[in-house]
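Milestone 3.1: sequence recovery, worked example.
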């Protein structure tokens, strides 16, 4: 499987990244199992699953509905394709929201421990952000000490997870722009009047909305697609404006708010003479500490004694994004690079926390000297070395992990080392704070540029890699096409890593932008594609959208903003897409979500949502056509605002 389907022999249809192609040639030669080879063995994949019409919620099933009318039209209990698809989608949103939010919970609990002095391994690093977030939430700050403020903020955040009253969670209430909040409140009222039933959209509790989905999708409960989708949106809003917002805000307070910096991206960040430690997963509470501890003289000394020049920490996926933005750590790659990194033979340890970690990494690591180290009781993988992480022993555990990596270094097989040379340069760290700083402190100049048409609008992109799409191809083509059309592109996650690897975050990418965007980027000294962080940092995009909306006294659904999740893979991406839609932003998706087996669900998400929420989903396979559609949405919104 080394050339394209058309047999042109010129490119590898598995990846658009030449570095990955180089590694895949080695994988083919050495017959290393990988996601592409396993995908091939899975063919043909189940079409009921692809359409979303398989139900295995009770033991009378599994039941399946053929949407083309061949066979039964209901499951044993009478569930239709519409019910089954809506329930499956709701469960995806619940799982995705729970992953982000549980991450946020851990950050909030750590903030509490630091504030009370129970944890001395971490500090209140960004007290400006602490005061800013506390003020926004309505916590008094005047004349109070930082630990006291942090304690109240931690309590407010923790309360968002477990409170039992019906009031919307405080983070959403205070961060969501006024008009959007009011719109959702009014919509709840209108839906109650028109349907006679309660259809809630504003989340009451982060945990509660996920549990609500597990309850209502249990055998014999909610069968109504509209009600199920509304709850999916509500649960996802609890993620975006709650769990993820808490994760981002608290991590900034504890670890520092990222600032603009220039880094290197791709497998070339691995160093032949260094102890290479790849940190992979999502929660920077551990990975940021590993980066910090790697600077200790005793660690450097131990590496030298083992025969290495130094310890070189590099990132993968979203925990990589976190330390990339805060600590300037090189980025080895996105999701589809995780196996390729180990195949270089130069990774001495891969240290993982939670989410997006292939269990296959344990087997692959065992073919090399690589120590594959799991650290979370929530992500244990057979075959891995498990070193349990405890926040209150973070320094000591990080040192232990680093010493494992150093011990592995002398066991490298030099004949099996293949580090691709290439890296791209990327300017990263565009938090809302940094964007506003570059623009003179307020969103006004960005708004003026949008109003006068120099920038047509803003596209927020998030996304993974998905073996069904040529790695990074959609990310590269869509992004390049949007900036060419004077659309500023911001985003997070594995999309951001793909864009960085492609050089789209280098200053030289200014030349690829349309005249208006190019001039702005040159004047500000920034690239036309802005890295805002990890997937929980999609909350930064919400804050930016909210700042623009409030400044103009408009609803987000009126702004020339559009979202995309190309190459999406995970349930977390379903949650992100859903909270964008619930926040009033249309979202492009590729590959197809598992909803097409239900005409009702498809119609609600692609059409009904537009009328009710302003945001909606659309699918498009071709990156250039996707760019056309995204531009058309921006132009439609501009026209409605007469700009
Ligand atoms: O957290 S690491 S594969 S899920 S994009 Fe996608 Fe990448 Fe996972 Fe979002 Ni981030």
């Amino acid at each position: 499987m080394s050339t394209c389907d058309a047999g042109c022999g010129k490119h590898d249809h598995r990846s658009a990244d030449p570095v990955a192609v180089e590694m895949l040639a080695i994988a083919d030669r050495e017959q290393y199992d990988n996601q592409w080879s396993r995908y091939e063995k899975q063919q043909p994949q189940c079409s009921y699953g692809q359409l979303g019409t398989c139900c295995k919620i009770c033991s009378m099933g599994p039941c399946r509905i053929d949407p083309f009318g061949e066979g039964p039209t209901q499951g044993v209990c009478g569930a239709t394709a519409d019910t089954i698809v809506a329930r499956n989608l709701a469960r995806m949103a619940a799982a995705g929201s729970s992953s982000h939010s549980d991450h946020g919970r851990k950050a909030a609990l750590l903030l509490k421990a630091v504030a009370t002095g129970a944890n001395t391994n971490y500090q209140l690093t960004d007290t400006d952000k602490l005061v800013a977030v506390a003020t926004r939430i309505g916590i008094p700050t005047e004349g109070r000490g930082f630990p006291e403020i942090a304690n109240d903020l931690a309590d407010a955040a923790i309360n968002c997870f477990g409170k039992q009253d019906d009031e919307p969670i405080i983070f959403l209430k205070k961060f969501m722009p006024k008009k959007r909040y009011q719109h959702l409140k009014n919509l709840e009222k209108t839906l109650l009047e028109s349907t006679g039933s309660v259809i809630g959209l504003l989340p009451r509790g982060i945990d509660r909305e996920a549990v609500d989905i597990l309850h209502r999708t249990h055998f014999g409960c909610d069968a109504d697609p509209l009600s199920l989708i509304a709850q999916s949106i509500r649960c996802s809003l609890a993620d975006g404006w709650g769990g993820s917002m808490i994760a981002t805000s608290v991590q900034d307070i504890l670890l520092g708010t990222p600032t603009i910096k220039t880094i290197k991206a791709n497998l070339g960040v691995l160093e032949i003479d260094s102890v290479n430690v790849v940190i992979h997963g999502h929660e920077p509470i551990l990975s940021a500490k590993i980066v910090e501890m790697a600077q200790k003289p005793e660690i450097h000394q131990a590496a030298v004694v083992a025969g290495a020049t130094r310890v070189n920490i590099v990132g993968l996926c979203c925990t990589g994004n976190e330390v990339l933005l805060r600590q300037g750590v090189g980025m080895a790659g996105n999701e589809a690079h995780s196996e390729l990194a180990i195949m270089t033979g130069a990774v001495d340890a891969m240290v993982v926390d939670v989410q997006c970690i292939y269990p296959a990494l344990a087997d692959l690591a065992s073919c090399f000297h690589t120590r594959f180290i799991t650290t979370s009781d929530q992500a244990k993988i057979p075959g891995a070395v498990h070193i349990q992480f405890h926040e209150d022993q973070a320094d000591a555990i990080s040192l232990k992990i680093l010493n494992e990596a150093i011990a592995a270094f002398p066991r490298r097989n030099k004949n099996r080392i293949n580090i691709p040379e290439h890296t791209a340069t990327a300017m990263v760290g565009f938090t809302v704070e940094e964007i506003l700083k570059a623009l003179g402190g307020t969103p006004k100049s960005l708004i003026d540029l949008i109003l006068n048409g120099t920038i047509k609008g803003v596209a927020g992109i998030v996304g993974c890699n998905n073996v069904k799409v040529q790695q990074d191809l959609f990310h590269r083509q869509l992004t390049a096409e949007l900036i060419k059309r004077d659309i500023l592109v911001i985003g997070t996650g594995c999309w951001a890593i793909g864009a960085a690897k492609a050089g789209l975050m280098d200053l030289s990418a200014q030349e690829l932008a349309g005249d208006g965007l190019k001039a702005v980027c040159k004047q500000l000294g920034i690239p036309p594609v802005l890295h805002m962080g990890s997937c929980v940092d999609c909350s930064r995009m919400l804050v930016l959208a909210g700042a623009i909306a409030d400044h103009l006294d408009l609803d987000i659904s009126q702004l020339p903003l559009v979202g995309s999740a190309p190459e999406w893979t995970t349930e977390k991406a379903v949650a992100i897409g859903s909270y964008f839609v619930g926040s009033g932003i249309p979202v492009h998706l590729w590959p197809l979500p598992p909803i097409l087996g239900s005409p009702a669900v498809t119609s609600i998400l692609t059409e009904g949502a537009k009328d009710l929420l302003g945001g909606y989903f659309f699918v498009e396979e071709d990156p250039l056509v996707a760019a056309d559609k995204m531009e058309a949405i921006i132009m439609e919104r501009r026209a409605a605002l007469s700009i």
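Residues 282, 317-318, 334-335, 356, 464, 493-494, 534-535, 569-570, 572-573 surround FE(4)-NI(1)-S(5) CLUSTER with Oxygen (CB under 6 Å). The first strand starts at residue 54 and ends at 55.
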